Amino acid sequence: MTMLPRLLVRLLTIASMVASLLGAAAAHEVRPAYLDIREETPGVFSVLLKTPMQGDARLALSAAFSGDLVKLTPVMSRPTGDAMLQTWQIRALEPLEGQKVSIDGLQNTMTDALVRIEFLDGYVWLEKLTPGKPGATIPATQSRWTVAKTYVASGIEHILFGFDHLLFVASLMLIVRDWRMLVKTVTAFTVAHSITLTFATLGWAALSSAPVEVIIAFSIVLVGAEIVRMERGETSLTITWPWVVAFGFGLLHGFGFAGALADLGLPRGDIPLALFSFNVGVELGQLIFIAAILAVVAAARQFFTIPRQAVIASAYGIGTIAAFWGVERLDAMLRAAG
């Protein structure tokens, strides 16, 4: 049976540890600014601005519109630990459609901002603002192509910056040495999280995000431990049938993806399209990650050799970082419950 190159295994150890270190502080979370505007009654909108914080300091960002509006309530601020939430209400003296919405101060940062506006008739407009493009004009309608493009991009971004999801995939690649089984395992993971992402988004199934995030972290610990067992010549369900374990944990990861999609919201008129596009984006991001590792292997195969002990060292690194995430998330969940 054809085996994956030994160098692939060794380089994956580096990729896993790098992903661990990059995600040690942020874990699963990407921290852009977020502006959510919802029409409550004709012409009256509730506004929520979420600004990332580092300690007690937050980015100096504010929302601005090109048209006339009246602020109906004062701005209420509430820190959440890693972000500042500001809420208030406005009355638009002229339609928001056609106005330019901007995030003042964004051009002086290195972060992005997601803007979501929901109107009474169900029309939802989404736009990602950047330091180079801190403002955009609100269109009267949004084409299906724009919806698809927006949600595909959001899915790709979510998986590529979801370090725990990537670390789980990298861990599976360390266990599965045969390329046929690797395809089967990754496919099982994909099918599983697609199922729960769809069910959770459509309201057919629900799990609280906090325990899901805890279990996701400890699922990585389990796979890390299985890597060590395999290197010692032992066997287990994970080692023998990795696609079964990938499917089981993929169901949980799908609920994690659903939480991200819930933050984005879904356009009422295009829910199937938005859901499908987000899922496609997640899969594309996952394939990009796998392809990047394989490309590094192909480029580096002739230049260096990594000691075999690096596999076990990587497994311990994976387990340590994932355990830290799990304990941190469990502590946050218990604090919130208490």
TrEMBL record:
Transmembrane segments annotated in the record for this chain: 159-176, 188-206, 212-228, 240-262, 274-298, 310-327
Domain of life: Bacteria
Extent of the signal sequence: 1-27
Keywords: Membrane, Signal, Transmembrane, Transmembrane helix
InterPro entries tied to this protein: Put_HupE_UreJ
Protein name: HupE / UreJ protein
Species: Kumtagia ephedrae
